[in-house]
Amino acid sequence: xxxxxxxxxxxxxxxxxxxxxxxxxxxxxxxxxxxxxxxxxxxxxxxxxxxxxxxxxxxxxxxxxxxxxxxxxxxxxxxxxxxxxxxxxxxxxxxxxxxxxxxxxxxxxxxxxxxxxxxxxxxxxxxxxxxxxxxxxxxxxxxxxxxxxxxxxxxxxxxxxxxxxxxxxxxxxxxxxxxxxxxxxxxxxxxxxxxxxxxxxxxxxxxxxxxxxxxxxxxxxxxxxxxxxxxxxxxxxxxxxxxxxxxxxxxxxxxxxxxxxxxxxxxxxxxxxxxxxxxxxxxxxxxxxxxxxxxxxxxxxxxxxxxxxxxxxxxxxxxxxxxxxxxxxxxxxxxxxxxxxxxxxxxxxxxxxxxxxxxxxxxxxxxxxxxxxxxxxxxxxxxx
Length: 384
Ligand SMILES: Nc1ncnc2c1ncn2[C@@H]1O[C@H](COP(=O)(O)OP(=O)(O)OP(=O)(O)O)[C@@H](O)[C@H]1O
Ligand SMILES: [Mg+2]
Prior knowledge:
Bound molecules: adenosine-5'-triphosphate, magnesium ion
Strand content: 25-35%
Distance between the termini: 28 Å
Number of domains: 2
Radius of gyration: 22 Å
Order of helices and strands: EEEHHHEEEEEEHHEEHHEEEHEHEHEEH
Number of strands: 18
C-alpha cells in the first residue's frame, strides 16, 4: 500500500499554510496551542475526504466559520480550507498527489445548505510514468476524471457539491487510481483519547471475531489480543512489552468462546486474575497502546495523539520501544507532550523530534523551509 510522503494544509485553523515531508516515523513536540492536534486533525480530514465524510466532519467541528484560518486573507483570496497528501507506492514507483479545497457555498447555490461546507476543487495527479498525469480535476461542478483507458469523462449529475469525487466515484475498474488512493487513506488509523473510564468499552468483553487491527476507540482490544494468542499463536512481543512496563505481571488471554476477554496476573497476587474492569486507567491505556502497536496487522499509517496521558513517566521508555517496533512495520505519526517519550523514541528510532511552534498565530515546524523540506544541517544530523 502507498505510504505518505508529504502533507500540506492551508486555511485550516492555525494551519495558515504548511507543507512538510513525512517519513516512516514522525515525532511532534511543542507547547500548548501550537497546532499539533490541528496537524493530526488535518490528516483525519484527508481520510474523511476519502470516506466521503469531509464536509460532514467540518460541519461537526463547528462549520467553516470555526475551522477557517482566523487571520487575515489577501484581498480577493477565497476563504478555503486546503488539504493535500502525496502518497508513494514503492513497489510500483507511482506517486499520487491528492488535493481538495473546501469553502462556503455561493449566496445563491441550491446544491447545499447556506452554511454547509462545500467542495470547491479536487485534483489527483499520478507521477511515475513518462510524465505526470492529471487523473482527476474538479472545479466546482466542472472538470473531468480519467477512466482506465485514459479518456476524460465528466462527473455526471450524481456528484453533489458537498461530496468529494474521490469518495463518490467508486467504480474501481474504471477509476483505478482513485481506488488506490481512497483505499490507502481509508485504512489510516488514529488513536486519540481512548476511553479508560469505568464505562469504557475496553473494560467489557467484546465479540470473539478475528481482529487483526485495533479499532480507533479500542473497543475490540480483547479480540485483538485473542487474535494474537489464538489465531497467530504468538504473543512473544505482546508479553515482552507488557512485562517491560509492569515487571512480574502477566497478560492472560483465554481461548474465546462467544466473547473475547483478557485479564492480568500481578506478581503480588499470583492466584488472582484481574479483570479489565479492575485495572487502573494507566494499565488499561498501556494495554490499549500495545493492542494498537503490536496488532496482527498494522494500518498503513498509524497516528497517536498524546498517548502518554495518564501513564507514569517510567512507562515512557517501554512505550517508546513499542512505537519504534511498530515503525519498522508501518508509518507512525506521534504527537506528544512528554519530553521523555519524544527523546526515547528519537533515540531508538533514529529520528529527530520536530518542534511545532506558532509564529503570528500560524503553526510552523522548526527547521522547516518554505520549499517544504527540513533544512540541510538537520537532515545531516538525522542521517548519522
Ligand atoms: N480558525 C482558527 N484560526 C486560527 N487558529 C485557530 C483556529 N481554530 C483554532 N485555532 C488555534 O489552534 C490552536 C489549537 O491547536 P491545537 O489543538 O492543535 O494545539 P496543540 O498543539 O495540540 O495544543 P495542546 O498541546 O494544548 O494539545 C489554538 O491556539 C487555537 O487558537
Ligand atoms: Mg493537542
